[in-house]
Structure formats: structure tokens, C-alpha cells
């Protein structure tokens, strides 16, 4: 891995061929709102990880790539979106396939361990109570994404400052992110509702999408429908 540095949003971050390729790939598969969100999430996570002792020694390249590619499951071209998988899994699969493609071009740094690390960071980035206990790269990816919703005041130990936040947002504006995300998630509730029933996307659909309901699809519904006797 050849690593130098670059400045994005006023933050000095690693600059490697894989990171450059990931940014280009994400740009090609993201609308403007999503692209700005993933770039902010990457930079917020980098700032946070740099100041927390238990995250300082993480694989910076793996974190960067995971954060930059974490929303490929929202692919604006539709090419990376499956008919039967959660968007997080679509994103994780697309990122792993992308990185395997880099290996065929001569970058052998992405062994199976690092590929799995990126897959896990992306697949689990909305599962707070699971990803919080994963590897530092996964935690940093998650914290950066959370920071884009919660802001600096809720960063752990004040690890993201307002000066850092404002500089990043200036370069990558929010572009009505919340409204845009609501529309994307409600779109999944319309197009592949079966992937939303056991996670937060279904809750978004139930609140904001007329006609969408979780009735009959919750865990209590599944338990009550179980045909097996209690003694099984």
C-alpha cells in the first residue's frame, strides 16, 4: 500500500490508490446528497478515531474505504441494488466485490481478513448495539455516520469539534439530507418491503409512508404464528 496524505474538508487524511478509487466509485453510484453524506461520515470518523486511544491504531485505509462505500446499497444507478437484501448487505457485497476487483489490478493488500472487516463495517453500520463491540475500523465507521446525524456535541469525549464539523460541512453541504434519506428508505419499503420488517427501515416506512404497515411482520407476530408446541 502506497500511502501519502490529502486534505479534504480541512482534514488531513490518508491518500492511497484504494481510497482514491473508492471515492470515484462512490461518486459514480451516489446522488449529490448521498455522496456528501458518505464523505462527511468518513471525515467525521477519521477525526473521532484520531482522538480516542482505543481507535487510534486502526487500519486507516480500511476505515476510509468502508466509510466511503457504506451507502452503495442506495446506488443511484440501481445497478448494485438487489431485490431481496437489506440495503446494508447490498452495500457490503458491492464494496467487497469492488475491492476484489482492485486485487486483480495488482493491489494485493485486500486479503480476506480486510475484505471481511470492510464488509462487517458496512453491513452493521445501522446496528448500533452490535457494531459498537466490533473492531476499531467498524466502530470508527459507525461513529462517523452517527456524527452526521447527531453532530459534534454527541461525539464520544468531545472527539469531534465544531471547527472540524463546520469545515467539513462547508466542503460537503448537507443538501437536505434528512428529507433525502426518508425518501430513499421509504423507497425500499415500496420496492422490497420484506427487507425492512426486522430493522429500522420498516419503522421509517410505518411513520412516513402511507399504506405501509409492520402488522403481521414483527417478532411477536412471528412467535404467535409458530406452529411448533412449546415443548419442542
Automatic annotation (TrEMBL):
CDD domains xref list: HDc
SUPFAM superfamilies: HD-domain/PDEase-like
Domain (HD) ranges: 34-130
Coiled coil: none
Recorded superkingdom: Eukaryota
Pfam families per UniProt: HD
Name this protein carries in UniProt: HD domain-containing protein
Amino acid at each position: 500500500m502506497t500511502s501519502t496524505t490529502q486534505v479534504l474538508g480541512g482534514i488531513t487524511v490518508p491518500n492511497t490508490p484504494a481510497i482514491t478509487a473508492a471515492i470515484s466509485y462512490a461518486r459514480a453510484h451516489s446522488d449529490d446528497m448521498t455522496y456528501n453524506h458518505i464523505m462527511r461520515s468518513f471525515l467525521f470518523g477519521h477525526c473521532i478515531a484520531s482522538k480516542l486511544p482505543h481507535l487510534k491504531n486502526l487500519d486507516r485505509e480500511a476505515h476510509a474505504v468502508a466509510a466511503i462505500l457504506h451507502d452503495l446499497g442506495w446506488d443511484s444507478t440501481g445497478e448494485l441494488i438487489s431485490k431481496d437484501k437489506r440495503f446494508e448487505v447490498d452495500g457490503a457485497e458491492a464494496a467487497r466485490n469492488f475491492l476484489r476487483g482492485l486485487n486483480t489490478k495488482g493491489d494485493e493488500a485486500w486479503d480476506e481478513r480486510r475484505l471481511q472487516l470492510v464488509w462487517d463495517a458496512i453491513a452493521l453500520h445501522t446496528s448500533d448495539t452490535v457494531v459498537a463491540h466490533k473492531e476499531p475500523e467498524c466502530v470508527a465507521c459507525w461513529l462517523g455516520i452517527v456524527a452526521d446525524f447527531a453532530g459534534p456535541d454527541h461525539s464520544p469525549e468531545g472527539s469531534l469539534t465544531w471547527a472540524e464539523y463546520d469545515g467539513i460541512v462547508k466542503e460537503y453541504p448537507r443538501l437536505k439530507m434528512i428529507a433525502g434519506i426518508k425518501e430513499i428508505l421509504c423507497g425500499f419499503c415500496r420496492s422490497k418491503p420484506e427487507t425492512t420488517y426486522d430493522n429500522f427501515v420498516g419503522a421509517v416506512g410505518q411513520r412516513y409512508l402511507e399504506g405501509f404497515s409492520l402488522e403481521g411482520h414483527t417478532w411477536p407476530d412471528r412467535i404467535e404464528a409458530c406452529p411448533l408446541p412449546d415443548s419442542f
